[in-house]
What does this fold into?
Amino acid sequence: MYKIKQEPEDFIVKEINNIEVKDSGEYLYFLLKKKNYNTLNAVSRIANALHVPINRFGYAGNKDKKAITEQIVSIYGVNKENLARVNLKDIEIKVLGYGMEYISIGDLVGNEFIITVRELNEEGIINFNEGIKNKPILMPNYFGVQRFSTQNIDVGRALIKREFEKAAELLKLDIIENDFIGAIRRVNKKIIRLYIRAYQSYIFNETVKEYLKNDIKDNEKIPIIGFGTELEEYNEKIAHIVKNILMDEKIDVRDFITVKMPELSEEGSIRDLFVEIKDLEVKEKKEDFVKIKFFLQKGSYATEAIDFLFG
It folds into this structure.
């Protein structure tokens, strides 16, 4: 057993990217350092302080709440002096410069983590020692639990199945004249898309879990299901597993085209079966406590790395 995130200082995340900062450009770039906020909430607070709409902001990924994180954010149409004057608790802003690109989800190389693992028992220590024996250190590339929260999968499933009334009820939205789609549309589009992506991630995790029951050693591509997914492009075992999951869910890949809300349609993509835990370094170690540093490529989860190493 082990525990993480006992304090925000136990989970430190630094985004690594190749964004080019210049002296001029359409977008203002700043380094956002935050504690006890996820990225969306932190950016919302900054937007409110500046009295500008949140859709002017762009960032490469939604970072954890109970953590200390750093990432670059872009903003359109804001004076750097006004941004520098924003003063919010547990949010630090450092103006970097300008650029021509709006930063969007995925515009990063990966993340560097410094994580403190506490209350380790003997089993956790043995697992860690076993886990780092082989190089490279490859772990199943599951989506982490923070992707799902308590009801994200259920909301996403309801949206894909066109059960808009159920989705609105789960989200506790105010409904006017039974206009469930209108109520959903009033929610920030980025948030609504997160629910659908949580459902896609759930299907991916279930696919990987089932596939790894076989003796799999080579890395492969696993589909993140969307309307553009062609299952014949994958090996027979993977295709069979996905078809069974879709059958159990009573959906088809074409259901990810949302005709009544086309802005929520998801084409799908691919994701590696395994991901490498790179540059692993033990920073501090005691009897029931260890602090480690490592790097993960974009889209991979440190919580899954910790569970692989210590769980």
